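fwd from M.: "can u put these together and see what the complex looks like"

so here's what she sent:
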Amino acid sequence: MSNQSALHIDPITEEIIQNSLQAIADEMFAAMRKTAMSSIIYEVLDMGTGIMDAKGELASSGAGIPAFVGVLDKAVKVVLDKFTAPGDIMPGDVFATNDPYYGGVTHLNDIVVAMPVFADGRLIAWTANIAHNSDVGGMAPGSLSGNATEIFQEGLRLPAIKIIAEGKPIAPVMDIIRVNSRMPDILEGDLWAAIASVRIGASRLEGLALKYGVSTFERAVASFMDHGEAISKKALAHLPKGTFTLSEEQDDGRIFNAIVTITDTDFIVDLRNNPDQSPNPVNTSRDGVMVAAQLIFKTLTDPYSPANGGTFRPITLLTREGSVFHAEEPAPIGFYYEIELRVYDLMWRCLAPHMPDKLAAGHFGSVCGTFIGGTHPDTGRQYTIVEPQIGGWGASMERDGNSAMFCGFHGETYNCPAEINEARNGVFVDQMALNLEPGGEGRNTGGRGIVMDYRLRADNGFLTAGYTRSKFPAWGVDGGQDGSPNYIEFRPKNGTPQRYAFVSGLVTNKDDVIRVVTGNGGGLGKAQERDRALVERDIRNGLITRERARDVYGA
Amino acid sequence: MTTARYRAATDVGGTFTDLVAFETTATGALRVVTAKSDTTPPNFEQGVLDVLNKAGVDPHDIGFLAHGTTVVINALTERKGVKVGLITTKGFRDTLEIARGNRPDFFNLNYVKPVPFVPRYLRAELAGRMDYHGHELEKLDLSALPAILDGFRAEGVEAIAVCFLHSYANTAHEAAAVAEIARLWPDVSVVASHQITREWREYERTNTAVLSAYVQPVAARYLGKLDAGLKDGGFEGSLFIMQSNCGVDSVEATSRIPITMVESGPASGFWGAAELGRRIGEPNILALDIGGTTAKCSLIENGQVRIMTDYWIERDRTSAGYPIMVPVVDLVEIGNGGGSIASVDEFGKLRVGPQSAGAVPGPASYGRGGVKATTTDANLWLGRINRDYFCGGTVKADMKAVETALTALGEKMGRGPDEAAQGIIRIANNNMVNALKLVSLNRGFDPRDFTLLAFGGGGAMHAVALGHELGVKKVVIPHAASVFSAWGMMMSDLRRDFFVTRLVPLSSGTAAQALETLFEGVEDEARAQFETEGVDSAKVTFHRYGKFRYQNQEHTTEVPMTGAITEAGLQAITEAFHGIYEREYTYRLSAPVELVGIHVVASAEVGKLELVAHPLSTEPASSAEKGKRMVDYALEGRHEATIYDGDRLDPGMVLSGPAIIEDSGTTVVIHPGNTVSMDAYRNLHITLGA
């Protein structure tokens, strides 16, 4: 097919190019998933892929974690700002950043790899990939530590650097990355998986652009983003208008405030009135908060159409430099995701009363990131479990909440099967059950969290975790009960059980049990109004005793 | 000459029961007989006898009958199975409900998680533990079993599934539980997960056992009645049931574990593609089957279909679905067939599928009240399908309705009906190209090394355009393309695929010995199974595969392992792995390579349809010409095409595009610049030209 010079490219060609962008982002995702070495990537799918235009605007994103959808464009823009001299960005180059103060958005474990795409001798697009790496150095195994007070303690910083020049790996850089990790082989394998993914994407994009002509390709990409904006604007018109506010106390005593204003054309999130950044790693970059705003915005407008740069144009975000939501260097940011999630939940809760058909009661609302490491007793190799947990979701107007699902920041994310966990990590999983604690009762009930027991088989391991909604559980609405808390119960073989929400580097020994408990979601409506047949069903299923049902439901 | 002159395939669908019978005539020539009659629930065997009768095929004259049925997938999707009780390892009663926690529909906060097939009150636990090596950690405690079974009886349970942790590594606890259940409750249907799969992942294996239990009584009843009905009708030959792994299996084995039939529909066509490819010297094939509502594709490398075990039902962009860990041919299916409906969304974007017009009302052209334009309507409008010979002349094409539908669609895009029709074809083709890329490019294969083989009702209409787009070597349209799947069924072997998870580091020095023992164990088991079913074990052949990965990875690459396993052989395989890996993923690592599991294919021939080569004609193709008409080739514009009668074309004839070859079942669209020749088996080989 020849290049078309007409001002308007034919709409079918445009559509075919746009469909192909989606297919390429998905292919990049599949390649990464199949080659990664960490279960956090290939099983949990704590990763994302995307295609940016030449200026770094998001053109198309692949599957995976919704919380990574809006990250890659920010990283590419920082690379573009930094590499401005002629010859700085060449075909075959690959760049990397993991630093939130250099476009990395999240925390140092997440390495973004980005590759420029050239066709007919000019830069036409970028492919990029982000994934959680199990260990990037720093003061603690797994790199995350609640004790960090500066980002320097959280691992090796890659401030938007080149790692491959015109197809040739820059050996010293690769060596530095390797040597800084406690798990160099796995870091290297995962990094190469990411490189394979952006290379495959770049080669497909180049083919696509050459096939239809570079200018046709570029116009199709631009119009795709305009299409994204049109969809958002149209949906925005149907949302209730006004200014909505919420203040909420956090587990650690901080008060977070959100003001959300919705007009016919804009979605404005004002987070300026919030605490100063913390000396602990419970801060986030402004980019991270923007991702949270984009997520809730996408959910409220059109959850089904593709997400691209145009989709998010109606969002305005106001933050204050030096605050918890706009941390400045060198504030530590290891547990940024819990803070981002708090902002997301804050906006959700703030808007829920005004759009009850779209927004359910609160969910367990924490990534419940759990890091367990030590020596595999059968192989003698080091292992690190890095996993988010599944928990209960809130009741909606139509139905009870889902049980045992990943939080709103995750999507096509899979938990690790006990059989694989036991083989790979040399631990026992004694149980994986629904959480039967009270919480979430209502006309419609919240879904159930889980109770999972890890029994350790070797001495001298460690446990690190950071859970929120441990003091203030998922919120009920309309008279429904709140859910139940997220927590870890450490049950040493000798000694009394201890309960934690945040714990760093706790030493573990053989036959100690780490019990992960995630919360039930919030209920909706008064418990007394619950359908009797559903109460009977819950009793029969052993989810609630008859005595307690009588107390709560009056059954 | 025996009386068994037919080999036949019957296929029971929701509406129709189809028959394709291949008759070997006295001269050795092959005659194809097809017929269709109503499906007759619940006495499905009646429909099969009806369709034989309608075709004039006496059951007594059939030597080999292959049977394909949707009974399993229908029972699952319509929730018409039996009440199942689940017995599992202590601490894991909720695994079936917890599932994997994923949410494909990730921006939608009102996602609804799939409901487990067994409610919590019918999920029971027994104490007892194996580790991942298969060593017993805690003895199985069966003392609670009688009370559990009493509870199941009281609740009306008809089938029981048993799945214990790590049973893939050691089956003893599951086997003991099944034996005890059979002793305590001889009438109940019971299945253990290891009888179906020996791979790890407890949720997937549990769900597989549960779904098999759920359909077992239904499927066994169905097959029992079919077998008896056919025998009553005079059938004395062998009855085989089509499986999802491209093989057929006995009624007895299938009745015991029917879940292996779940995706048998598309399997036979892909098997046929592999088989035909071997015969015409095309071992590398991209196979495409376009039907009424979907298009399916699969890649065949070196004459081998790829069999996988990560199959899911009801899984799509909005639902996590349910996993079934059985061997299923590796395919990609998309909602694009002849009946796919075209629509324009509120932003002016044209979409084709996945909604389908179905049989009722059908495409607008059927004149049965369908008002929405479909792919078939677009093909008619553009002159690709002959409007005066629609559906082999059995349906009068309602071109007025087609025009109305296309005009309405075009108006939403500000275009006329011609452009709307071209748009439908281009979007439909693009959807199919993306699906074909998923099975080729995405898996590291270059389409230029492959031949595109297209069949099904719509395959031949789109094949050349797709072949151009992908840059394939050439396009082949098999003889009787619309019933090619049935031909594939005729060529199937009795086949079972065994997958066993086992971690073996290749650097251990004892790996070869351990592997050889593992393979032999599985092969002995397979032989014993076949023997109890009266299959001579000497006729069973085995193919061995290893699933390899770099240490710490999860996803594996399957590598063939020929002959006895030796340390030297493992070295060579490790080398092969690095190569295959690099081809697919652009890099290789110096990390240790490990084996994660094995795959054994056990097959026994059950006699195949012999293909007879026809003499090549010296007549020119023009003798089969039936006229000319204008055809719109979408991207390549409008051309006057020569129309050929496919039935009058003979082997050896050569023709060139623009042309259309049509017979009662198939329309082949030949683009300008293409050259077509018919081989001795009446297959069309299309070279695409520059």
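replying to her w this: The mean pLDDT of chain B is 92.
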